[in-house]
Amino acid sequence: MALVLGVESTAHTIGIGIVNTEGKILADARATYFPKKGGILPREAADFISENYSKVLKEALAQAKVSLKEIDCFAFSQGPGLGGCLKIGSNVTRYLAIKHKKPLIGVVHGIGHIEIGKLLTEAKDPVILYVSGGNTQVIALSGGRYRVFGETLDIPIGNCLDQFALQVGLKHPGGPEVEKLALKGKNYIELPYIVKGMDLSFTGLLTSAMKLHKTGKYSLEDLAFSLQETAYAMLIEVTERAMAHTNKKEVLIVGGVAANKRFCEMLEIMAKERNAKAYYVPMKYAADNGTMIAWAGALMLKSGVKQELSKTSVRQKFRPDEVDVTWT
Ligand code: ATP
Ligand code: FE2
Question: Which BP terms in the Gene Ontology apply to this protein (predicted)?
Answer without folding.
Answer: tRNA threonylcarbamoyladenosine modification
